[in-house]
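1st attempt posting a full record on here, be nice pls
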Amino acid sequence: MTPRMSDHFKRAETGFKPLFALEAAIRTSTLEPKLLHLVKLRASQINGCAFCIQMHVSEALRDGEAPLRLHMLPAWRESPLYAPRERAALAWTEALTRVAETGAPDADWAEVQDAFTPDERAWLSLAIGAINLWNRVQIGFRSPHALDLPHAA
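the predicted structure (as tokens):
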């Protein structure tokens, strides 16, 4: 696959700087890093963003995520590997990533309300929106992914 643009960060630097700042802010929220990895990876899988899938698998492995949980993520509903809080976040991730199809169902929101504080709900929704934007940018420019993964921590 041939990249469409490789200097997009430089060409739109003033636009990308706030996105990087947003990512830094999300990391300072009370949402657990492992939960954020799952959310970012699941949205990237749905969107088919190879660049982001590779990046978020690498980051999750470096942060000690179990490889099996990463492998099973597309089938999270059928797997016992995910806690109720993670399930609520993953359902909300899928609902917002596919919002044109789902309309962000009240049932998914109710699970989020049960599992997250009001502040965490805001940060979770913001994190889901952010990864969807990153996916669209990287897919649109056909950004190539790295060809390796780190070993699990």
